[in-house]
Amino acid sequence: MEYVWFIMIGLVAGWLAGQLMKGGGFGIIGDIVVGVLGALLGGFLFRSLGVSAGGGLLGSIIVATIGAVVLIFILRLMRRI
Question: In which element (H, E) is residue 67 found?
Fold first, then answer.
């Protein structure tokens, strides 16, 4: 069941990041992938900085969305090269 929640949070985070970054999305599967990878990246960044977004669903979505925004930014930089 945890995997289902992780994918749902990834979907929401990927969609939110796409909206925040003002660009075309990556499709439903792409948004899930970006959201899940963003959640992993966001968790790593937040732990490295010693910052906490709080627990629960909202905190997870915030961390995943920030990670997904960073990931989209990096992907767009790489696409330009």
Answer: helix 56-80
Compare 32 and 41 and report the one with higher pLDDT.
Answer: 41
3-state secondary structure 17-59: HHHHCCCCCCHHHHHHHHHHHHHHHHHHHHHHHCCCCCCHHHH
Radius of gyration of the chain (CA): 12
Q: Which amino acid belongs to residue 13?
A: A
Copy the structure tokens of residue 1. Answer: 């069941």
Tokens coding 63: 């961390």
- pLDDT of 54 higher than 80: no
